[in-house]
Amino acid sequence: MSRTTDRLLLLDGRLTPSAGGGAFETIDPANEDVLGTAADGTPADMDRAIGAARRAFDETSWAADPAFRVRCLRQLREAMQRRSDELRELTIREVGAPRFLTFGGQLDTPVDDLGWFAGLAESYEWERDLGRAEPMGMPSHRWIRREPVGVVGAITPWNFPHQINLAKLGPALAAGNTVVLKPAPDTPWCAAVLGEIIAAETDIPPGVVNVVTSSDHGLGAQLVEDPRVDLVTFTGSTATGRTVMASAAATLKRVFLELGGKSAFIVLDDADLRAACSFAAFSGIAHAGQGCAITTRILVPRDRYDEAVEITAKSLAKLGAGDPGDDRTICGPVISARQRDRIEGYLRLAVEEGGSFACGGGRPAGRDKGFWIEPTLVTGLSNDARTAREEIFGPVLVIMPHDGDDDAVRIANDSPYGLSGAVHGGDLERARAVAARLRTGTVGVNGGVWYSADVPFGGYKQSGIGREMGVAGFEEYLETKAIAEGTT
Ligand code: NAD
Fold first, then answer.
1. Looking at the chain, which residues constitute the CATH 3.40.605.10 domain(s)?
2. Active site residues per annotation
3. d(Cα 422, Cα 299) in Å, to the nearest integer?
4. Mutation choice for ligand 1 from 24, 50, 101, 159, CB with most ligand atoms inside 8 A
5. What is the mean pLDDT of residues 466-476?
6. 6 φ, ψ to 5°?
7. Which of 43, 173, 422, 484 could bridge across to 265 with cysteines, CB 3.0–4.6 Å?
8. Using one digit for the tens of pLDDT, what is the confidence trace for 1-28?
């Protein structure tokens, strides 16, 4: 029996079912309830979306009218804020995001940040006068113009859907591009509702934003390969990022990649061990560890290893895993059966590699429905173990000893990733010096939070290429043109 599609695609300004009429279910990961369906976009739908974005860029005044774009972005922010209660419940249910996070990075903060990108577009120096010079004896007046890149393909994961969708849409639109958004199949509604709001409550012209939900990852590949797309902004796993970069090479399009991580949390020997380890536990399992920048390797002074294990394990056990709708929950479910099974594979691997669990190590008691993993602390492994090197993307932390600042930096940097990190110490200058030596895109010192619209975020090494957010993130979506006028 076919079911009516609950949420539709946004193609060329219209909310529409998929070309084949298909739909796929979206599931509440806390209890496996079916929330409803999303349109199952096909290659024909993706083709239409790209065509619409191309026309909107080439044939309308969108790219040349920053004042109108600023107004549209502010409209979008206000419309999302008006619907924040509904969006909050949707996010808790579809993403399994703990309620407390929806007041920050899972909803309210990225919506508010649209205003920051609007303000940036308003004050940005789109054209700079370099003045006169006589290159090769030819008198010239030189100008630098910044222009939008064109059609942007935005491919996003499921873990922080509003944050990542909006951290791409905001700067891409502010810069004057048009966008095709392809969200992850696990969280289609967060993107589809954005399409609904854009269509119904903003003046964003047809084709400027297109949203193609689909159960088919192949539509992401199609977006990367299509020659009508000028830039791909991708957030997801390092493995997929590699494929995206290779496919983009055929049409030499720009790629901007935000990928995985296995970040270190360094506790120096002069730190308040109790405070640092409790913070490491809290920050390590927020949203069930499903954050790319989460610090999942805890490095503590060797002579206090046992004490650190005890404090961290007690904190994790106390936090536990709970219903995402509950105000007190820090760690909710993981997104899917597939992710739960993958994490359980790593728990088996940890034991095979000689590790033990100081707490957790399985599914929480009494959770027969939904996708759950207990907050887990793995001990007894070195940084060579796969469990300590590979991204698990669940509430699983590995705690390891270090022999002083140099050794802690060595272990932290001994990773193919370079996304984020944390340093805790009693002497701020010393903690800062350690932070400066980490080969990562962001570092928090003594609990400092770097996440903000004006702070560029991104990875060194295999954690990515380019920066999201901040002026640097905005400029990812711009081309640079030099103009020289001959003078006498
Ligand atoms: P994923 O790589 O499986 O999928 C991400 C997106 O890519 C999805 O929309 C998917 O449909 C699409 N996709 C899959 N195959 C594709 C292909 N061949 N070509 C183009 N698109 C394709 O990632 P995920 O499981 O959805 O998300 C978890 C991963 O995302 C983790 O590795 C995490 O670290 C990473 N992540 C990184 C950041 C960051 O900013 N650095 C933020 C959040 C998540």
1. 4-259+464-485
2. 258, 292
3. 10
4. 159
5. 98
6. -75, -45
7. 422
8. 346 679 999 999 999 999 989 999 999 9
